[in-house]
Each structure stands twice: as structure tokens, then as C-alpha cells.
Protein: Tryptophanase
Amino acid sequence: MRFPAEPFRIKVVEPLRRVSREERVRHITEAGLNIFAVPADTIYVDLLTDSGTSAMSDNQWAGIMMGDESYAGSRNFYNFQKAVRDIFGYPFVIPTHQGRVAENLLFSTVLKKGDIVPNNIHFDTTRANVQHQGAEAADLVIDEGLDPSSLHPFKGNLDPAKLDRLLTEKKGRVPLVMLTVTNNSGGGQPVSLANIRQVRVVCTKHGVPLFFDACRFAENCYFIQQRESGQANRSIEEIAKELFSYGDGCTMSAKKDGLVNIGGFLAMKNEEWSKAITNLLILIEGFPTYGGLAGRDLEAIARGLREVLSEDYLAFRTGQVAHLGDLLDQAGVPIVKPVGGHAVYIDAKRFLPNIPQSQFPGQALVVALYREYGIRAVEVGSLMFAQPDEKTGEMVYPKLELVRLAVPRRVYTTEHMRYVAESVIELFRDRDKLRGLRVTYEAPVLRHFTARLEELAPEPATR
Structure:
């Protein structure tokens, strides 16, 4: 078998509606060529994100029926707190309604203008939350992490030499180091235990705490088990506990490896930071034992965090994503290799070499996938990350121009993945028909969520 069969049976199904190409053209045009603004019920296979799109288990649904909606001291909070402490090992646990709130609470408490936060590669909301405080988000991934064709097994690694140099040169300006596991913006690539130990040594040398963006921690730990020397005979939970032992805290969107549709948390060792963050939490989110969530949601997270450690589940999960990547790779479609844990990333620069980054090749591909096949993906490239240089005003484009096919957990079958592969392959054969785009409206922050675009006119034929 190319990958393990589903380690679950299907009890409930949700109908999918196939809409005509004409209807899809109308919807994407009305949306200003922004896939975020397209109605979800016009999409056949939705690979926009793996965040909050998981199918929950019977065990989680049973837990939801046991929700204790007491304002303070809900029993579900204590189940949730125990699960986080057992797996992550941090004593202070602060629930939030999703991961970006955890980021906002952390950064608004510990950052000041002019600070720097290093990371392997910040994702969009993390970067925006850093910059919102007037701080700088520095990406220090290893060089192989910026090469889509490199087969390095841990392309998410943060370069310890780059980190040491930054902490030396910018002494006093770095209140914490972040490490994203897996590295979403770099193709869903994992970080090795060996690298985490090296980063910890550098952080200790400079007296700077290390925090993890832990939303896909179980997938990262599975790759460690499968790829890293000396880890094959360890359980996912054992690896996770060691991984987090090198940190001082973490933020997490439980909408990924918590296997739920809403929720997140912030956990840490620093009691003073925890007190300050909790005071802010009460102001903007809710009481410390619910943090913007219903008791039933806390229970679902507590159960999901334990379920996600199943090796049978993780083998299927990563195998299904790898299968999609293999189908595309065998047909010559340029993708980021090795395939990541939660998504296949198409290299839009090589897919559409005739469209410059200033014309958003990744977004052009996203639009075509929906228009022609009813598939929703997301651009992780110039629309998401390009920014003007603060000194020169010249637009700085990201080194990676990607389209992410993010696979929801326990939702789609192998046949869905084959449909996606066949659609992308067919579009690749007709790629010369695609045109670049230009922005007609953009917000000052996180513009890709609400931007409006239009297609550029075709180049005049030359004699």
C-alpha cells in the first residue's frame, strides 16, 4: 500500500455540491479574485486551510455533550489544563479562542517598539502580530529551507549560527525566540530535535527564552520519529515531551493538531508573564478558566490533544498528504520537496515562470484552480508577504512563491486527493493560458484576506 488505510470508519457524511463553471466564474469575479471571499458551498474540495476544518471523533463529540458551562472553574477547563501540562510540560496554561489571540496576548505583553523576534519563518498572523507592536519579525531558516527542490529531511530548521549572530549584534532587543513546528510558510517542513537542542544552547548563552508555535507539533514529532537518527523506537508523546522541554513556553492554535474547530492556548514557565497575560485575557477574552471558549470546546481540545498522538492516525495523515504530492511530482508539477505534513506546496515560480512576482503568480494559480475545477487553495507568496522596504520604498518579494493545498484532517478520501491531483496536472499542461493579476484594493495589514484583484490584459502578439 502506498500509505496506510484510514484508521477510522465514517459514521456521518456531509453532501458536497458541484456547481457549474459559469457559476464559479461569477463568484470569483464578484469576490475580486480573492478566494477568501467565495462562498464555501460553491467549492467541491476545500484545501484553503487545515485550521479548524478537522472532523472530530465520536469521543470528542461525546465530550462536547459533557460541557460544563460554568462561568468560572468549569470541570472541562481542568481536563484541558491537565492535557496541556501532561504533553507540553508548562505549568501556566491560558486558554484562548484561537492561536492568533495567543500570539497577540504574548507579543502585546512582552514586546516593545524596536524589538526583534527571530523565527525559522513567521507565518502571516505571527508576523502581523509582531509588527503590530512595532517590532521586527526576522526569518532565520536554514538555506535549504528556501530551496523548494532540496531534499533535506528537516528544512524547517532554524540556523543556529544566524541566530547567534543576531542575538550578539542586537543584544537587548530580542525578548524571545520563536520556533514554528512544522514550518508552515516554508512548505510544512519539520524541525529536528537536534536543531531544537542547538537553538536552546544559543538561547541559553544569550539569556533569551525560547517559545514554540506548536500548532502542528504532532506532525513534527512524527517526522522526527520517522527521519531522525535514534528516534524510531520512541513514542510520539515521548518525543513531544522532550521537544517542549527545551522551550520556555508555546502558543498553539488547537484548530490544527488539537483536532477541533475552534480554540487555542498559551502555555509557559514564566509566572510573571503569565500573570500579566492573564490580566489582559480577562479584559479582552474572558475569565482565565474559559478564555473565550465554551466548556464543551475545552473538553474537545483536551481529548483531541491526546488523540493526535496516535501513530496510526499520524501515519495515515502524513501518508495521505504525501500521496497527493507524489501524484503531482510524478507528473512533473513543481512542488516543495520533501512533502510536508499538512499540505502540498506548489512552487508557483516554476509553475508559472512567465508571470513575475509583481503580478502574483501564486494567486493567479489559486484563481484558476477554483474557476476551472472547484478547488480552493491558498497563496503563500507575494500577495501574502511582499512588503515595501522601510528605507527605499521598493517592494521586497518573498523568496518562496507557493500555493498551499492544505488537507483537512479526517475529512477527505483518497479519491478526493486523486481528483485534486488530476485537476492540478491538467492545469499545469494549460499553464500558458494563465495571466498575471494586479491589486485594486488592499488593507494595510494582512491584505491577502480582503484584497481585491483583477486580471491583466494579455500581452499583444508579436510578429
